[in-house]
Amino acid sequence: MRDFVWNNSQINTLLGAAKFIASVGDKYDLSERNIRCLQLSSYFLLSTEIDISDIPFANPIELASTLQDSEQKKSALEFLVLSMYYEDDYLDEKRLILEGYLRSLKLSDLLLKQLSQVFNQYRQLVEYNEFRKTLKSSTNRTLDAHFNDKFMPNENSPQSVSDKYQKLTLLAKNSLGYNLYKSYRKNKFPLPGERLLSNDKVVLIYDIVKLITGYRYDIRGDLNALAFVAGNMTVGSFIVAAIGVIEYYYQNPEAIRKVNKLERKKYWNAIRVGMNCPLDFTDNWEYEANFIKNLNDLRAECNL
């Protein structure tokens, strides 16, 4: 992630574009969730506290005219992708509106496809993380019904998956692989591949980040782990950072009342830890080749 400085004109125009997409081109009033998500995204990612009703709509030409840096344009597109998904309604209509901004920013359809994939993968990660944390205290039937069969056991999962992770116990006790397997067993989490997911690697990297950084499997630890991943990413960092913020604060009424500059500073501190890590976990990092590595050595490689 790059930490841009956004001027007032850029912020207001970007928020106006996001508001236009979220409202389906001013076709519908913004829902309470849309308003709150826009406020949280603005406060944490753009460092601006807003009253969304004061923000005028901005068309694609207006947005493009305020942005010159190509990387900043990509971050702006990420912010707009988020606004499309704050609510899972009218997605086809919102996508058509978003494509107008995409063309005005002179960015590619492939990038938009990548960003949509990032959003779906990391939203599923958050849902799956909550699912598996409650798995050990609930019956499978209750959980499967509650999660609408999203994370059913993978009946095609070969025995070799279990054997593969069981063999990690043969590694040194201070190794990444040994501690990863022990973490799955301690927390009673399914092994990667044992549940139906669109991308097991996203979950696996998240769990490796938890081990290396020491973040716990609690609300704050989950938030910080997503912040680290966001800081470490080159494509989709704004999206992952916002998913963490929205899931943590929007879903926790007590936490949302405590949103302040200190909370924002803490979150950006976790993002910068990821930014300062030279290992690129989300871009072809060979995690299996690193299973034998000492955890402390990996932490040193990450500047931790």
Question: If you had to describe this structure to a student in words, what would you say it looks like?
Answer:
The protein is an all-alpha fold and 304 residues long. The protein folds into two domains: 8-107, no CATH class; 120-301, no CATH class. The protein is 62% helix and 0% strand. The chain contains 15 helices and no strands. The protein has helices spanning 8-22, 32-45, 60-66, 70-85, 91-105, 109-135, 140-146, 159-166, 176-187, 200-213, 219-232, 237-250, 253-256, 261-275, 295-301. The two termini are 18 Å apart. The model has no long low-confidence stretch (mean pLDDT 91).
Short synopsis of the structure:
Helix content is 62%, strand content 0%. The chain has 304 residues and is mainly α.
In terms of topology, how is this protein built?
Layout: H1 8-22, H2 32-45, H3 60-66, H4 70-85, H5 91-105, H6 109-135, H7 140-146, H8 159-166, H9 176-187, H10 200-213, H11 219-232, H12 237-250, H13 253-256, H14 261-275, H15 295-301
Helix pairs in contact: 1-3, 1-4, 1-5, 2-12, 3-5, 4-5, 4-6, 4-12, 6-12, 9-10, 10-11, 11-12, 11-14
Total domain units? 2
Structural class: mainly alpha
Low-confidence stretches: none
Instruction: Give the termini distance in whole angstroms.
Output: 18 Å
Strand content: under 5%
Give the integer mean of the pLDDT values: 91
Number of helices: 15
Radius of gyration: 20 Å
Question: Biggest β-sheet: count, sense, barrel?
Answer: none
- SSE string, helices as H and strands as E: HHHHHHHHHHHHHHH
How many runs of DSSP E, i.e. beta strands? 0
What share of the residues lie within helices? 55-70%
- Gross morphology: globular
